[in-house]
Structure formats: structure tokens, C-alpha cells
Amino acid sequence: MRLSSCRSGCDDQTAKKLMTYFGHFGSGDHACTLGQLEARIAMLVEQLGTQGCRGKALGTPGEEAELQQKVEENEHLRLELQMVETERVRLSLLEEKLVDVLQLLQRLRDLNISKRALGKILLNTLDACKDPTHEGISGPSAILDALHQALAGCELLRRELSAPASTAPALTNPLLISC
Questions:
Q1: pLDDT of residue 174
Q2: Percent of the chain with pLDDT over 90
């Protein structure tokens, strides 16, 4: 049985229970009682109209507690998903910075930069990031940013960019490179 006041039939179970309860009346009384019952239920549904038909409107305390627990669990999972997504974005940005630094290192190595010069750039960057007067945020991201700037500012790379590829002189003594 579906009551006219509820589109989804959420009152079916309640109506059946009430019909069973009032089922012991005679057939004449039964029709009258069912009409009154439907009118009363329609009135109650209208009063609860702000809540809409949400399944069992009058659930047991155990069902309500279970529903509340599921709502809290859902909220917890949503927050956890948001934290995981934030961490994924952070790691993705860190990966991009690392790839950029590695590409610069490879370009410098292809230009025959000495190991000593690369080591000096790296150690100077690490010392600058460790210095308490160093502005910015400490951590892997800040170190990668500083290293990227130091590598990109290397004189050898600036010379490579300013000279055409065909006329770039071959450097035979990498110790003369100032970075």
C-alpha cells in the first residue's frame, strides 16, 4: 500500500502495521478507520515535510545510532580522502621540482662541468638552506628550489643559452668554469 502523501512509499511499513493493528474491526468500521488513518498519516507527513521522505522517519534508537555512526564514519573517510589528495598534490609538485633539478644536472654534466664545481654548487646550496637567516621555508621543497636556482644561474648554462649551438666553444678545462 502506498499513501498519497509519500512519493517513495516510505510510509508503507508503518501503514501496514497500523492496518494490522486496526484490522480486528468490522468491515464497515475498517473502511472508516483506514480513511481516518490515512488522513492522520497524511497530516503527520505534511508536518514533517521539511524533512521529506527519508526512508524510516520514525526509526528505533538503535537504527538512529547506527545511522549517526555511519554519518560520522562517512565524514571521517571524506576528511581522510581530502588529506590523501592534499598529500598527493604535494608529492606531485615535489616530483616536478626534482625532475627539473635532475634535468639541469644532466645538462651541466653534458657540458662537461667538473664534479668539483657541481659539488660546490650543491654544498653551497645546502649551507644556504641550513643558515637560519635564509629566507623561505625549510624542507625538501625549499632545498630543491634553491638548488634549481643555483644550477640555473650557473655561468656555463648562461653561456650555452647565449651562444648559438653551432658556434659553442668546446671547453677543455672545466676548472675555469665559475658557477
A1: 47
A2: 35
